[in-house]
Amino acid sequence: MGDNRERLDVAAPASLRTPLRLPHKALMGAGPVNADPRVLLAGSLPILGHMHPETIAVMDEIKEGLQYAFQTKNPVTLCLSCAGHGGMEASLSNVLEPGDVAVIAVSGLWGHRAADMATRHGARVVLLETPLGQPVSLEAAEEALAKHRPRLLFLVQCESSTSALQPLEGFGPLCHRYGALLVVDAVASLGGAPLWTDRWELDVVYTGSQKALNAPPGLAPITFSPRAMQRIEARKKPCSVYYWDVRVLGDYWGCFGRPRIYHHTCPITLFLALREALAIFASESLTATWRRHADAAQRLYDGLDRLGLGLSLFVEDPRHRTPTLTAVKVPPSVDPASVLRTAISRHGVEIGGGLGPTAGRIFRIGLFGVHANPMTVDMVLRVLEDSIKNPISVSKL
């Protein structure tokens, strides 16, 4: 009997004939990081429609959890269906109009990325640069604000390319004295380092789901202050990107007290996982989580010193180290690529390398969420020691 199937131009790929299997890896780099089993289980729950009442209820619970994590009462607190880069783009594109001035603090990769985005949206960008590993001072910020009278000042709380912590207290009132908004990137810090959105008068803050919140990547929580919303409502033209327009997206999330409207088909599976991650996060309490991250980071610092392998911290001032992520200088005698290769190949442990201006210069060790505990710190110290002392050569792979 002949084969009546239509001949296809492209055959079914042989690579898809078997079920997917993946090894377990300890993700100890700059993110994403491992998730709690409860979070992973939530991702296997039934898929719901994007306007189903159960979906709306989950979104409301996520919003409450994010208000807790951000420490804000902002009604416009929601989750973007995108990675952290989308949070950066949404922050800038909603606030900035063509011709506006934006002062962007640059002390690593992410300030440059924000400057690129702001320029694409027609803003005139002024870079406020500091040496790698050092934050912006209030004095330097005030000088830039007084001189340029910008629409916004952009700061990164944790510059993940260096692991430097940017102090935020005092910058909000300073910006507001000069008629500017304060936009903060908290992708690598929220949940692991103190952040008070309302208390510190931060206007727009965004993060990523895949770091200290311990949810899968693909979501960007964000919050807009009433002051930021006044600016957005006063725009001469709508936000240039429909997908990021918070005035439209906010109705999907019920931020304005109006009926819910369709905006896009949300990634409900990611929402379910984030909801569970936030539930775990809230059950511990925010202050306890901050303390746990600080304790784990100090244990890592002490352990690196005890190893005696010439390892030193990239950020020299203890006040400016982020507890979620630690940058370690690569000793001159060590090949960083071989160390990272050995850690993942022999131990199944990912340790991050440098990024952007620090590529090849540092190791980056993440202690996000579930990894901020003594056992995990001791484990990564053992792996780092072995990978430096007994690296795997390329020829043995």
UniProtKB/TrEMBL annotation:
Aminotransferase class V domain residues: 50-354
Residue numbers of N6-(pyridoxal phosphate)lysine PTMs: K211
Family as reported in the entry's similarity comment: Belongs to the class-V pyridoxal-phosphate-dependent aminotransferase family.
SUPFAM superfamilies referenced in this protein's UniProt entry, alphabetically: PLP-dependent transferases
Keywords, comma-separated and alphabetical: Aminotransferase, Pyridoxal phosphate, Transferase
Annotated substrate binding sites: R364
Stored PROSITE patterns: AA_TRANSFER_CLASS_5
GO biological processes: glycine biosynthetic process, by transamination of glyoxylate
E.C. no: 2.6.1.44
Protein name: Alanine--glyoxylate aminotransferase
One annotated Gene Ontology cellular component of this protein: peroxisome
GO terms of molecular function: alanine-glyoxylate transaminase activity; L-serine-pyruvate transaminase activity
Cited PANTHER family: ALANINE--GLYOXYLATE AMINOTRANSFERASE, AMINOTRANSFERASE CLASS V
Pfam families recorded: Aminotran_5
Catalytic activity: glyoxylate + L-alanine = glycine + pyruvate
Keyword field contains Cell inner membrane: no
Cofactor: pyridoxal 5'-phosphate
